[in-house]
Write a structure and sequence with these properties.
alpha/beta, 5 helices
Length: about 180
Amino acid sequence: MKRLSGPIGVAPVGEVPETPLKVIAAHISGYLNLNAEVIAPIETPSHAFDKNRFQYDAGKILSHFESMRFPEFEKIVAVFSDDLFIPIFSHVFGEARLGGRYALVSLFRLNKQPDGSVSPQAMIYERAAKVALHEIGHLFRLAHCDDNHCLMHFTGGLQSLDEISLYFCRYCSTYFQDALPLA
């Protein structure tokens, strides 16, 4: 049996409601069969705020988090209410470095429907869970998948995010299992 040395930590960054944190932790446990717990908040790195874009630079946040230590946790999923970006995109729902230790999830844009109306809470939580599980895939070295139903398929908008599954395709599932350390 394969398992991690510690649980996955789900941490709020800034003002984040408790429910999406619990939903993300439950999805990590239920869909990936990994232990996950909601942990204490992490302070928002103010130097990552871009005054021209009114968004936080996800790359700068990841670099900042990499200097932090959470020895009791295998990986950390940091959940933001703020808007995140990387320089080549206007926004990102999440970000992680392949094989890294920290993943980011932004709730900021998950509350809209493609027509601009507000999404139901259950849909927002499912979207947040999909983003978190996708980013965890990257933490375990999974790249984007060509299968447009796979959880690891790239999604740049809400419609494509809603269309992907909460599951890895059979190939990504095998790669994920192989990436887990032996107990």
